[in-house]
Amino acid sequence: MRVSEEVLQIWRWPRVRRLVRPMGGLYDPERHEPLADSAWSESRAREAIVAICRDAEAAFDDDRLWPLHPGDDDPETPADGVLRGLYLGAAGVLHGLWRLAEQGLHTPRIDGAAIAGGLYEASLASPDEEGAGSSLLAGSSGILLVMHRFAPSAATCDVLADAIAANVRHPSNELLLGAPGTMLAARAMYDRTHEDRFARLWCESARTLLARQGPDGLWTQDLYGTLLRYVGAAHGFAGNARALFAAPEWLDAPAEVEARAMSTARAFAIFDGELASWPPLDIGSRTGAPPRVQWCHGAPGMITSLARIGVRDDSHGALLRSAGELVWKAGPPSRNAGLCHGTAGNGFAFLALFARTGKQRWLSRARAFAMHAIDQSARLRAATGRGRYTLFTGDLGAALLAAACLTGDPAFPGIDDL
Predict the structure, then answer these.
(1) What does the alpha-carbon distance between residue 210 and residue 217 come to, in Å, rounded to a whole number?
(2) If you count Cβ atoms within 10 Å of the first and of the last residue's Cβ in the chain, which end, N or C, has fewer?
(3) Strand (E) positions, 64-216?
(4) What confidence score (pLDDT) does residue 75 get?
């Protein structure tokens, strides 16, 4: 599909929608709000984490699992109206609660193992997303990873290996549905089990992915029957790079792959003085709508995906720091406190820069966003009369950022902590 210079298509997970906006700068101020003047408080962070977890547990229903929030509802919901995957569904909620419990920040009152054990078979009959298949964030791989986390078994390993194998040549070439996502699953399972079959599956996926990479470093995404080339973390280049560098020791030519990734990031960056960002697509990069400043499309996801590579490359580090300055200048996203397109996801960009540079100001900025996300999730919960119970768009994102800020842990939930 060709898109004119006057029109920029931006796709939002999980459905395709069109947005046309006038030409602007590196971000749209209408999508952001002033940062709250709340000093970092470890005790407040811990109290908020407990409150968010308790609210999520109280909302659980044996039959319906976690209810859809109005912001996540879609006309094409699953056949039984229940979401089970890692991105919007029950597996993601369980993963977030497990991670917080593992850190001693939450004592579960629900039986996570029993809930996780019932997700897989039901998801086959009523998948979260048409075509979700074996994918990490909407399909069976994410569900099976959570199931294995709560109750490891050889049988689950076998089914998960089959799911990853089925996704090796998926045409989407992106993180949410495609092989890059199941590469993260393969890496996680190798780390858990040390079984060589998971390393082999990762390598087969990586070779296929690299063979499809375009001359300019991007990939073509075949999503819902439309071909586009994304730059960012959720659907494009940056997410693929993150998957490839989940196991650089398994790459045939890691230095070459790394150099190409840094070159691609620089080639598609757009600048305004000392600030840097990226367009969502390879076309219209100098025209159209201002770039989003969020994990899925924009500077925060580029930072979290690429901060671990080129650690001795000064120009790559400077580019990421310029992107971090943009995230700080733009301020918290106004419509969501979560990970994918909300305040928490942007806060993890600062933690990635803290881990890379060791500079305290990045941790301080992450903590400022964490306090804002806590307040923001409470404010949005009061406005709707209920919480938002998902890993990537819900209140758990605020809790997970607050938890990460206690130690400076940059691991992005659902991506780096599988």
Answers:
(1) 10
(2) N
(3) none
(4) 65
DSSP string, 358-386: --HHHHHHHHHHHHHHHHHHHHHHHHHTS
Residue 292 C-alpha from the chain's centroid: 15
User: In this structure, which amino acid lies at residue 327?
Assistant: V
Per-residue pLDDT for 86 more than 90? Answer: yes
Token representation of residue 82 = 């229940």
Dihedral over Cα of 393, 399, 404, 405: its sign: positive
Q: What six digits make up the tokens of 84?
A: 């089970």
Q: How far apart are CA 307 and CA 32, in angstroms?
A: 24
pLDDT tens string 259-283: 999 999 999 999 999 999 999 998 6
Dist CA 244 CA 329 (whole Å): 30
Identify any residues that bridge with 222 across adjacent strands, giving them in sequence order: 227
Query: pLDDT at residue 8 above 70?
Result: no
Phi, then psi, of 333 in degrees rounded to 5: -60, 140
pLDDT given at position 289: 78
Q: Are 185 and 160 spatial neighbours (Cβ–Cβ below 8 Å)?
A: yes
> Over 70: is that where the pLDDT of 17 sits?
no
Average pLDDT score over residue span 26-41:
95
CB atoms within 10 A of CB 319: 21
SS3 222: strand
Alpha-carbon dihedral angle through residues 172, 81, 164, 412, given to the nearest 10 degrees: 80
Q: Is the full-model pTM beyond 0.90?
A: yes
> Buried b / exposed e across 161-190, counting CB within 10 Å, b at 16+?
bebbbbbbebebbbbbbbbbbbbbbbbbbb
